[in-house]
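User: Show me a protein chain along with its predicted structure.
Assistant: Here is one chain, sequence first, then structure tokens.
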Amino acid sequence: MEDADYIVVGAGFAGLTAALRLTQAGHSVLVIEARDRPGGRTFTETRADGSYIDHGGTWVGPGQDRIHALMAELGVRSYKQYVDGQAMMLVDGKAHRYGGTIPWSMRPWVSGNLATAFLELRRMCASIPVEAPWDAARAVRWDATTLAQWLEWHVPVRQARRLLEMALAGSYTSAASELSLLFVVFQLASAGGPDFVLGVEGAAEDARPVGGMGAIYRPMADRLADVLSLGAPARSISQDSAGVTVRCDSREVRGSRVIVAVPVAIAGQIVYEPALPVDRSLLHQRMPSGAVLKCHALYDEPFWRADGLTGQSAAPGTAAAVTIDAGMHEEGPGVLAIVTEGPTARTLSRMAPADRRAAIIDALAHRFGPKASVPIEFTQQDWTAEQYSGGGMISHAPPGVLTEFGHALRPACGRIHWAGTETSAVMYGFVDGAVRSGERAAREVLAADAAA
């Protein structure tokens, strides 16, 4: 049996950050990762020509102080997302070009209904205590309501409702009928509101790290190389009065405490001895991930820029629901990232890769013209099929979960501590939230042992 002061399960941003901070504090750490790579729900492919593609989490934005601090610590620069042009919205087969967050070029009753919905969401976010959203004044009512119901009641114009449903439900890679309204408002509030979460410039997709997210997580993994074990899924965690034992398929590791830094649904696949407190155990059963595919179409050049477009587009119900320019910080090939989430992603996931590619390329050609139909390369990342991601990029809460079990998200269960972006009260669902959670968990274990 191997020994260390602390064990970390999961080598995504939360686990790597926790392990890095613990080693910097002078403690020994062992990091156990189920995948054959670090990075978790981020995954950067660095290609032979030096170009890079982020198949998972990609962007950083203002207010995400902890990921920016980590980048500064590691010497990683960022560059602005390309926004010099107009975005495109397709509704009922008609294309609308626009700037900003709301497509004012649509019919007045559509854009006006969207603006009114944004105002209401901002007001709702302002009422949420992000450290304990279940304590909000209307928490019980909102937690008994689905996002789909709220949209039906508050966004009467069909086109506006479809767009907002795609934007909001798509952020959580699920259908609007699966999502608690309280959860949606909390997640928006954790990042400052809908304008940040659904925006680009000055918002959630404001900038990218030079070299992709791998330029951040790989140096962390390199610093932990001697204590990082890949391809080692944790099967069980047992704790006693002296410490914890983590068992993998072919090894056991022992430490004073363990930080579990994996998606909530994946944490539920680990056997805990003794059993976890009932609320934490039931929480694992009630916070699933959704479905998301992230594909990239590569072209000789970003031809959409010459057409006055940013590459950002949205078309509800299509195989290419959302696109955005994913080009590098320097000149290189034109790259369109295509993100499809929720029920449409589940449909695409069931298709053969060639048929899926054809459906997506057809949607791009309809939107951007004939040049989009002949990419020089096409990549597909089906997160829905990722065994150790559990589905989409964010675990979500269905109705009733936050008010009944949300209080169990962060508190330690004896010597077992929890990290991961879903445990962050600030920037829930973002890489910054994962970094915050790893730093919090590291402080927790150090404080707990200091007090013992």
